[in-house]
Specification:
247 residues, mainly alpha, 82% helix
Length: 247
Amino acid sequence: MAELSALEIAYCVAVMLLAYGLRGSTGFGGALGMPLLALVLPIKILVPVWTLLGFASSAAILGRDRKFVDYRAMVAFMPWCAVGIAAGLYFFKSLDAQVLTRALGVVVLLYAVQSLVGVIRPGAMPQWLRRVIEPVAGVLSGGVGTMFGSMGSVFFAMYLDARVVAKDAFRATTSAMLLLLCIVRGIGYYAVGEFTLEAWIMFAAAFPLMLIGIYVGDRVQVSISEQAFRKLVCVTLFVCGIPLLLK
């Protein structure tokens, strides 16, 4: 961090506020921040820091919104996510990560467009497609989170959007899912000694920015209608898909 220029520090601050503003309003937009920060920060340090931020931000949101968690959707999702984790470990060893990431970016962008059409024209997404999306999103969330340490929550959003979960439950359930994955991932990082002093210092520096972003995003989420929230989810999905294409 000491080697960053003033411009790079300003860039990191802007990315944090944007990412966690989206996180506070939609429940999942924080995934956007990691690939953007990786442009100026070492990924080796950033991955465990992002896990700590994911845990802290989920706990902050659930502190008030835990009553909105859709446990039925969460329980139905987790087995598919476990399959994805196993698949992620396999593909991480056997496939070119860059090609796979770009392919996933295309999937996210196409889904965002399809979902936006569904918001503008209710009923445009057929029921059979929703049934297909749910397990696919679960598998992809586990796989992507395992391989890249981020972006898995984008597929939480795809899953919950396909189930047409109300906005309060959407944000709370996404946060609960992310909290569980961060705990599991954090245990792994701790076991291999990735929570270094530098990682903790970076987390301490980012923590206040995370809280500000979530606070602003929360004010946005409270003030918008259900349809406007759906549109925001679609736009955020689209934006989150772009870093995957460029990764």
